[in-house]
Amino acid sequence: MPKYETIIKGGTVATAVDTFEADVAIQGGRIAALGLDLGGAERTIDATGMLVLPGGIDAHCHIEQESSTKIMTADDFYSGSVSAAFGGNTTFVPFAAQHRGQSLRDVVNIAHERAGPKSVIDYAFHLIISDPTENVLGQELPALIMEGYSSFKVYMTYEMLKIDDHQMLDVLSLARRYGAMTMVHAENNDVINWLSERLLTRGYVEPKYHAVSHNPIAESEASRRAIDLARLADAKLLIVHVSAPEAANAILNARNQGLPIYGETCPQYLFLTAEDLDRDGMEGAKFCCSPPPRDKAGQEAIWLGLTNGTFQVFSSDHAPYRYDETGKFNAGRNPTFKKIANGVPGIETRMPLLFSEGVGKGRLSLNQFVALTATNAAKIYGLHPRKGTIAVGSDADIAIWDPTWKRTITQSMLHDNMDYTPYEGMEITGWPRTVLSQGRIVVENETLQVARGSGSFLERQPADPGVELGDDAPLNPSRTFGADLM
Ligand code: DUC
Ligand code: ZN
Ligand code: ZN
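A: This is the predicted complex of the input protein with dihydropyrimidine-2,4(1H,3H)-dione.
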């Protein structure tokens, strides 16, 4: 009788801190042993020449989500999770998004109905809070946090989503009280509107003006303000999808002061620029997302932020709107830049792009890659040590990477429900060959091996990321109010 269900043999294991030669034994969906000569198994996976990495955690993606302008994403929980798995992910954290007037409880129930029968990888939900009413703040949100929905996103822009500074303070102080993480989309709505009006009245309507209206100052001002509001409320805060160097600097400065401020960036800010929005005809619409891609110098600043302590998390912000009337052109075939659906796809290409251009080109260590794509998200969002690492007792969520596999990205090889990829034609070296979730093989031989709905919902604990990430700063040392006021 073999000792283990599965052994992954002969590979190089890497975590966020170590790289070592070891076999990985799996039993009952978890990692049972790490080492050499572990004994027999019912199934042996040969990983000679391969890297054995924690499955990725995509902590920012929009799946089967209706936008505030009522556009449904092209991916549901089946196509979205399959695409994620082929890109090396074993967990994702999409949003359960509240539209104004909606009960948060209803929003969460709908998200479960959508995900449960379809997802092939494990999942949790961040909430989106667009309507922080007395009932939401006093009843629904505290109850949901206690149930493990311990992170939520708020917006400083988008007419139908944005909250004002007063509401932001309410949300932050509640998050502080319950140990939850607030994520913020930091762009100054008035700056964007003011610039947009001036552009439109002068006839500047093409997609490239989307990037002009979302000036980097709109992002850096809002980022600094969000950080200050978090300081005032003595709360931790994670600024998502950072694109502008000045916004990145604001995060780094805050962190250097010991504040519990965290940063996330995404592939579109490393691999695209505002020039992509100026492609022929309406092609630029494919690259319209918010914040927008910046310039080459901006890309370099974002790369630097991945290694200098600015960014802890690298997510896709997969927001799949097709290049047709169901998505980008929902408001007509020839819209002004204001009416183009915002978002780019990238759930399957997130990790291969960062591996190839980061690890492969010597910009990142393999351990930094693991930290940015899996471990830190698990820690920050209350999933660690079950997820995000390779350790005895952790879930056997593993991506076996072939670091020599050369591929040219093209839409037809991807598994999402999109009709384009912004990374069409890019040559990539390194891609996962085999992906296991809780010990089950999800992807092997370029084929999906599991049924719809085989992923599980993950209950989370409110996390204490300051301690977990090793920078055990107390919360804001310069807090101005007593606890009774918060
Ligand atoms: N911006 C967002 O804030 N969310 C989805 C996509 C985008 O471009
Ligand atoms: Zn956003
Ligand atoms: Zn987003």
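Residues 56-377 form a domain with the TIM Barrel fold (CATH 3.20.20.140). The chain has a mean pLDDT of 95.
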